[in-house]
Design brief:
Blueprint lengths: L5 H20 L14 E8 L8 E6 L4 E7 L4 E7 L8 E8 L2 E10 L4 H4 L4 E7 L2 E5 L6 E4 L2 E2 L5
Parallel strand pairs: 1-7
Antiparallel strand pairs: 1-4, 2-3, 2-5, 5-6, 6-10, 7-8, 8-9
């Protein structure tokens, strides 16, 4: 058996580099649309409140990406897509959600170990803020309530 030539080593190194870097390319800020492993997910956060008197305020992030601050009005949909990490740590995203005195801090909008099974059928996770709480579904129609709002006390 002969040893690999310089050209073969270059090809092997190139292929290894692609395989090693691929998991890091599928972050939420990536524009990568190719889904070789079928592991792309999309998270939606929707304003389902009954009035536009106050915006629905969001700040979403992961350990690798800050997705910024967003103001949504009725029907507004902030959404992002990402690929599951192939190597640990697992994929996680959180959002702080506020509307006037109502708030829920650090909602785990996607956590591979907890939410994944809820979203895996459609590869979509929908969160909708409504007057009486925060709702979830995976098809944008069969929502169920997961959280009540906390209410900030007025300062005197």
């Amino acid at each position: 058996m002969s040893s690999p030539t310089g050209r073969e080593l270059t090809i092997y190194l190139y292929l290894f580099s692609i395989i090693a870097v691929f998991p890091f390319l599928t972050s939420a800020s990536s524009s990568l649309k190719f889904d070789l492993f079928g592991n792309m997910y999309r998270v939606h956060v929707i304003n389902g409140f009954s009035s536009n008197d106050l915006p629905f305020l969001l700040h979403c992030w992961s350990s690798n990406d800050d997705l910024g601050h967003h103001s949504l009005y009725i029907g507004g949909d902030f959404n992002f897509h990402f690929g599951l990490r192939i190597i640990p740590p697992s994929t996680r995203f959180w959002c702080d959600m506020n509307r006037g005195p109502k708030y829920i801090p650090q909602v785990s909008v996607f956590e591979e170990d907890e939410v994944l099974h809820l979203c895996s059928h459609t590869q979509q996770c929908y969160w909708r803020g409504q007057d009486n709480g925060l709702y979830f579904c995976n098809d944008n129609s069969s929502y169920f309530k997961l959280y009540d709002w906390y209410i900030r006390k007025k300062e005197r």
